[in-house]
Structures are given as C-alpha cells and as structure tokens.
User: What shape does this take?
Amino acid sequence: MTLRLGFIVEALGGELHGDANLSIDGLAPLESAQAGQLSFVSHAKYQSQLAVSHASCVIVGPQFQALASTRGACIVTDQPYLYFARLTQLWKKTLPEAPGPLIHPSAVVDPQAQVHPTARIGALCVVEAGAVIGAQTVLKSRVTLGEGCVVGERCIIHSGVVIGADGFGFAPNAGAWEKIEQLGAVRIGNDVEIGANTCIDRGALQDTVIEDGVKLDNLIQIAHNVHIGKHTAMAGCAGVAGSATIGAHCTVGGSGNVLGHLTLADGVHISAGSMVMRSISKPGLYTGIFPIDDNASWERNAASLKQLSSLRDRIRALEAQLKSRQDSN
Assistant: This one.
C-alpha cells in the first residue's frame, strides 16, 4: 500500500516541504530507509545520518528544516517522534483488517463473563467467570483473564499475559506454609497495553489496580495489591512487590524493581536495573546501580563497600577527637 504525503499532512498536520503527490510505500529507520520510504529525526546526534539518508521524506523539527530540505521532501513539526508515532497508527489503520471472528473458536469464554461486542479475543485465550472486557479491547493469543477481573476499553493485552493469578501469600506454620486465599481481583483501566508474558496477580483482599493509560512491557511481574497510577510506563523484566503504590506518570527502566509496601510519588523515574528499597516522595530521576567493572576491580570495591559502616564510625570518632582538642585550645 502507499500513502501520499499530502494525505499524511492532511490527517496529522505538520508543514510539508516537497511534493504533496509523492507516494510513500513504507516507514523505515533513518539509516536504512530507501527511496519511497519515510523516516524521522528526533535528536541532534542523528544529524549526520540525515544528510546521507536515502529516505524520500523525513519528519524533522524546525532546527533541521534547512538540512532536510537540501536532500528531499520533509515534514516539519515541533515533536517529530510523536508525529512518527501517530503516523504508525495512521499507517496501521489503512491496512486491511484480517478476516475472522471477533472471538477465536479455540478461545474458552465462560458464559458468566462479560465481553463487549467490539472486543477481540485471540486463539487459545481463557476468560473465566465474572471477568469483564471493555469495548475495542484486544486479547492476543493465549491470554488468561481470571475470574472477576476487569479490563477496560481500548486495551491491548499481548500473548501469554496472565491477569488474576493468585498473589504470593503464605503464612508460616510449624516449618511449613499455610496458603492465604487471594480474595481480591485485578482492575485494569482504559487504554492500557500489557506486553507478552507479563503477569498481574489478583489482590489478597483488595484489588490490584492498573489505572488508565499504563504501559507495561514484556515479562513484568506485578504482585498482589499493587496500585499503578495513570500513564506510568514500565520496561521489560521490571518487578513490583506486593502492596506497593506507584504514582502517575512514572517510569521504571528495564529490570528495575520496587519492594513491597513502598510508595512512589507522581513523576518518579527509576533507572534501568535499580532496586527501590525506600518510598520516594519527590518527583525526579533515581538510580541505584553499582557500576559495572572488570571482576578484580569490582571485588576490591565490593570489599571496601563492606567496610563503609566501620570507616564512618572511625571518621566520626576522629572528628570528635579533633573537635575536643580544638575546644581545649
């Protein structure tokens, strides 16, 4: 399929410099784009690639208009990356929809579940009793939605996701473990996207809650009674332990972890690989990673790290002695 540049600008806005009748037959990264394809530049570090790109058209910010115009057509917009995101949505909408039933014949949907007539349920999905699926929500293949769990409107749940498995709750009993029945559910808001093989556990007593607009990557674990605020995004392999509360508009980098019963304020951003071990009350970027090094150096530094507490006490003692001498003089 092809889209005219004029059609793209009419649909998405922006300022076109070039032939409105030029046809685009694909979207591609800047460094590999060929004639007939459209790409974008969102950062100054890609300026050198822009100059030599073979793309027929490039989406750029105002600061790159002159350079982009010397090599061909361009669309100028204040937010090139956002424009490109919306272009991918427009492109997908123009693709022909795959034929087939809204509920795949291999899916198992309990008669007591509520599935909106516009929702799509893929192959081998399981939707248990009392579950609710909202309008235009899509469950890809092999999704499990547990009993009583709710998914809002326009959500995308990717393959292998499990929503509503029991939370990890056990009480010690004479050297063994006694199961704590998980009596809550999972409530997911509107416009949420959940990546493949992510698991969201049901609450023990209250529901686990994922608010509107949250984006979760693949292989994420959300434990029981967690509450994630609106438009928070978490990258792959992140984990949130039970009863943690994460505010709105937060981000957690890949393999970042949040311990249980902690609270993160709105606008908190956790770097990849960080372990959050205390509540965070102020927005900002937080990092807790021991820097990588060659093994011998790392072992020496790790050994020194173990001595920090005793070194602190020795420094305090020396400071006290020095102050005592100064006072006596």
Q: What stands out?
A: Residues 308-328 form the longest helix (21 residues). Residues 265 and 282 are 6 Å apart (CA to CA). The mean pLDDT is 95.
